[in-house]
């Protein structure tokens, strides 16, 4: 009995810790239009964490949806990132204009990039908790390339 209650608690705590590592692409907003060759700001937020976690690195990539009959909806971005535009270490920090800590990155849309809808993604690796254990996650935002 005690054992099962304890393991439930541990599972719950782990789930909470994992959820707390989630990142989010705050900018660009969905359906923003960009031009090939543009330098754009990608703002990546990190949710508050209860257990300590350390960010190891981040990759920002762009995948064109052109040529897919079902468009962006049929692409599993976690399996095919497209063109990496930035690979970096990062350390999101608190700023006065947002609730969550974030980092701004400047990325260049490739000058020959196919026009149409595209999926901008951010993939990060972090080390979570006292172990620590490795955690990776990919989030995405659909934009339009003019
Ligand atoms: C983007 O940034 C690069 C490097 O700073 C610069 O050479 C280029 O002119 C910029 N492009 C635009 C469209 O501003
Ligand atoms: C892309 O983002 C949307 C909206 O946040 C989400 O529903 C979808 O699961 C994401 N796709 C992948 C492959 O992560
Ligand atoms: C991050 O970029 C956004 C959009 O350009 C800007 O409003 C914000 O002030 C920037 N934050 C920092 C800390 O530079």
Task: Please provide a written account of the structure.
- There is one protein chain.
- The chain is mostly beta strands and 146 residues long.
- Residues 5-13 have low confidence and may be disordered.
- 13% of the residues lie in helices and 45% in strands.
- It starts with a helix and ends with a strand.
- The structure holds 2-acetamido-2-deoxy-beta-D-glucopyranose (3 copies).
- One 2-acetamido-2-deoxy-beta-D-glucopyranose binds at residues 76-78, 138, 140.
How do the strands and helices of this protein lay out in sequence?
Elements: H1 2-20, E1 23-27, E2 33-34, E3 39-46, E4 53-64, E5 83-88, E6 102-108, E7 116-128, E8 133-145
Parallel strand pairs: 2-8
Antiparallel strand pairs: 1-3, 3-6, 4-5, 4-7, 7-8
Bound molecules: 2-acetamido-2-deoxy-beta-D-glucopyranose (NAG) (3 copies).
Give me a quick take on this structure:
With 146 residues, the chain is mostly beta strands.
């Amino acid at each position: 009995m005690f054992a099962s209650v304890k393991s439930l608690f541990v599972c719950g705590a782990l789930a909470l810790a994992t959820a707390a590592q989630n990142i989010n692409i705050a900018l660009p907003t969905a359906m923003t239009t960009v031009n090939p060759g543009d330098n754009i700001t990608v703002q990546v937020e990190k949710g508050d964490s209860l257990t300590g976690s350390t960010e190891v690195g981040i990759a920002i990539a762009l995948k064109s949806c052109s040529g897919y009959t079902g468009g962006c909806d049929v692409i599993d971005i976690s399996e095919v990132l497209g063109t990496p535009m930035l690979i970096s270490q990062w350390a999101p920090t608190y700023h006065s204009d947002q609730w969550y800590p974030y980092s701004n990155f400047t990325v260049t849309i490739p000058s020959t990039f196919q026009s149409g809808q595209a999926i901008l993604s951010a993939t990060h690796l972090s080390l979570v908790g006292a172990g620590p254990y490795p955690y990776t996650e990919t989030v995405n935002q659909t934009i339009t390339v003019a």
